[in-house]
Write a structure and sequence with these properties.
The chain is of the alpha/beta class and about 230 residues long. It is built from six helices and five strands. Helix 1 crosses helix 5, helix 4 crosses helix 5 and helix 5 packs parallel to helix 6.
């Protein structure tokens, strides 16, 4: 009987500590989420108010197998193009996933902009923008950007601007929300909480290098340097 009572007491303590740990972890995650959102929001402005920068960084999103950009990415590229037309920056960086030969976000993004009339030399492709953190890190270290306008949907933009600021860039954001993206936004918003916590740790604690770095390709030169050879 005594052993049974002792076991029940230990089990109760384990349950109590587990519940407290879960509460603490969830509370911490929500606090970090709010911090990232609050900092990022300070630097999100409309297209007319955003200051001139070294480059406009358009973050990648899904591209269909035939090379057509998704609605979400279409909106990002359109907003980036409009900023370019307003002379907010002389160059655009399109950053996305081109890790496989049969999936290529960045060439589709560059082709979209070229079809709008943007000269080839004004569009730099970041073929290794596998995450928001890596896209911003590479904009700083590969493309030598110091002042940047980031374009993506607002839910994502707050984190992107936070990361850029944490990495030492003078970053501003312009939101590209131009459509109702449907039920997918519920999933994106939930996933964003985890992403904000991860990038908070990445920028402030672990500071990992991107998957790929390489030689510098300053954005002040010719975007053709990033074309596929």
């Amino acid at each position: 009987m005594g052993k049974l009572i002792s076991f029940k007491m230990r089990l109760k303590r384990v349950i109590v500590f587990s519940v407290l740990f879960i509460i603490l972890a969830c509370t911490t995650a929500l606090i970090v989420n709010q911090h990232v959102e609050s900092v990022g929001t300070k630097y999100i402005v409309n297209a007319g108010e955003v200051p001139m920068a070294d480059a406009i960084l358009v973050l990648g999103a899904y591209v269909f197998p035939n090379g057509t950009v998704s609605t979400m990415l279409n909106d990002r590229l359109t907003a980036g193009y409009e900023l370019y037309e307003q002379a907010k920056a002389a160059k655009l960086i399109v950053s996305g996933d081109h890790g496989e030969t049969d999936y290529d976000e960045v060439n589709s993004m560059k082709n979209f902009l070229k079809e709008k009339g943007v000269p080839n030399e004004d569009v730099f492709m970041d073929h290794a923008g596998f995450s928001t953190y890596e896209s911003v890190y590479r904009a700083r270290d590969i493309f030598k950007v110091q002042k940047v306008i980031i374009v993506t949907q607002e839910y994502h933009l707050m984190r992107a601007v936070y990361v850029a600021r944490a990495l030492g860039l003078e970053a501003y954001g312009v939101a590209s929300d131009r459509h109702d993206y449907g039920q997918a936004m519920k999933m994106y918003n939930i996933r964003e909480i985890a992403a904000r916590n991860k990038d908070f740790l990445w920028t402030n604690v672990f500071k990992p290098k991107p998957t790929f770095l390489g030689d510098a390709i300053p954005v002040f030169g010719d975007g053709a340097a990033t074309d596929d050879k």
